[in-house]
Design brief:
This protein is mostly helical and 455 residues long. Helix content is 42%, strand content 6%. It has one domain: Serine Threonine Protein Phosphatase 5, Tetratricopeptide repeat, CATH 1.25.40. The model is unreliable at 9-31 (pLDDT under 50).
């Protein structure tokens, strides 16, 4: 570890953490508000776990929408109002203090760690302990991928000490994630439970550069495993924002001008399926410097209820492949490409025409062939961006690859080039990046360890 915390002491007179989440934040709506002293009771335990999951769901897909724009996985339609994004996000730039939903994701972590404390005292079942540790782990993993800096609280939810601050690194989040998933494994009783814990730990180990550990964990995850966030149309905070913003009503982004526009027509890869809407030719907004944008909706999600992947067996195989390219296992191009193509050829190509999707097909996708390490890395990067398209992961991957100087090309459209059909001066007005969110002003104001901008 080469990071150092910035830590100060503060006299606190109320039982509230500096990531201001009081005990009442643990009241959950399913099965209804629960008195604090009863949170460890068996009947209330599932409510605490569901509360942690709900906080993740509530904070995930709208910020995933930002991340997909930053990663150029989608092209902005120009909408800045309802179900839109700020202009700087359209351009792929994250301004200082932009970090909405920081509190929601820390609330998820806080609720899960409250559950761990209460469940331990109540001698809860292994299943409940597994669930609490698992969702604490996923909370930390998401924070680590999406933020530039770490604000690390005590794992004791009753602590009133302000959280430590680690600038320019999120390794502490991933270390906490590894610890949480390891604890979850200690309580896992079924293969499905072990799959979830190994998958989360593999994701965190990849970020920490623990290549062999990431390979080993990913290899232990069963084929067909899938972990998803349960989106729900019952209230707007639980909608799948990636679908809602793309729906015919809002039309806030498009696949036009992205890598996936031509790639889908060339391959029929169903993982990046898009089409047209006969009722609408154009997105709702008007993109700065461009004007009305052609609307070609993605078809990966088709309703507010469509769940969003946060871990899968296919991702695990790609983690194995990346670890191999970094020296794990045999360290050979052949082993890495076998893993990459195992994911790729499991998909069956769609029938397409110039308007995108026509029908499901019957022919598997063609495998990639790599003769060099550079080519193997290019295909690894491409497959991760395809496999996890519209899941809010690509910007974080780009940041990780940049930080480690990973070889291989990235399929990024050059929207800064005036000759590109998607060009607008907006893309040169702002510098693209960073590929992570900033600590919001609210946290800077209440945590003496986190400096102000320029401080």
């Amino acid at each position: 570890m080469n990071y150092k915390p910035i830590r100060k002491t503060l006299g606190v007179t109320c039982g509230v953490m500096m990531l201001t989440l009081s005990a009442t934040a643990c009241d959950v709506t399913n099965p209804g508000p629960i008195q604090d002293e009863f949170l460890g009771d068996e009947a209330a335990q599932i409510g605490l776990i569901n509360g942690a999951i709900r906080s993740i769901v509530n904070g995930y897909t709208d910020r995933a929408f930002d991340m997909e724009l930053i990663a150029r996985q989608i092209y902005p339609g120009g909408q800045i109002g309802a179900w839109g994004n700020p202009v700087h996000i359209h351009a792929g730039n994250v301004e200082d203090l932009y970090g909405a939903n920081f509190t929601a994701l820390h609330q998820a972590r806080f609720i899960a760690e409250t559950a761990i404390q209460r469940f331990t005292l109540a001698e809860a079942s292994a299943e409940r302990m597994w669930g609490a540790h698992l969702w604490a782990g996923f909370s930390y993993r998401i924070l680590g991928e999406w933020w530039c800096d770490t604000v690390l609280p005590s794992t004791d939810p009753t602590s009133t000490e302000p959280s430590e601050y680690f600038p320019d690194t999120t390794e502490p989040y991933f270390e906490r994630a590894v610890s949480s998933f390891t604890s979850a494994l200690g309580f896992a009783e079924t293969q499905e439970q072990r799959d979830a814990a190994y998958a989360g730990r593999a994701q965190a180990n990849l970020w920490l550069g623990n290549w062999q550990a990431a390979f080993d964990d990913a290899a232990l995850v069963s084929d067909g495993y899938l972990e998803q966030l349960d989106q729900d149309e019952s209230e707007s905070g639980l909608y799948n924002y990636l679908w809602e913003a793309n729906s015919g009503t809002f039309r806030s982004y498009t696949t036009k001008f992205t890598f996936y526009e031509d790639y889908y027509l060339e391959t029929g890869d169903p993982r990046v399926r898009w089409g047209t809407d006969p009722a609408y030719d154009l997105a709702v907004g008007s993109l700065s410097g461009f004007g009305p944008v052609p609307y070609k909706p993605m078809l990966k999600y088709t309703s507010r209820n469509d769940d969003v992947n946060i871990a899968s067996a296919d991702e695990m195989r790609l983690i194995q492949a990346e670890a191999v390219l970094r020296g794990a296992s045999s360290g050979t191009i052949g082993e890495a490409m076998a893993l990459i193509n195992g994911v790729r050829t499991a998909s069956v190509a769609d029938v397409t025409d110039e308007d995108g999707y026509v029908a499901a097909g019957s022919t598997p996708l063609e495998p990639w062939t790599a003769a060099t390490e550079e080519e193997a890395w290019t295909y690894l990067k491409r497959e991760r961006r395809i496999e996890m398209w519209l899941e809010g992961r690509a910007a974080a991957d780009e940041r990780r690859w940049n930080e480690t100087n990973a070889p291989g090309a990235l399929d990024l459209p050059d929207w800064e080039d005036p000759s590109h059909p998607g060009y607008t001066p907006l893309f040169t007005q702002y510098e693209r990046g960073p590929f992570c969110f900033d600590i919001p002003q609210s946290e800077r104001d209440r945590n003496p360890n986190v400096p102000g901008i320029g401080g």
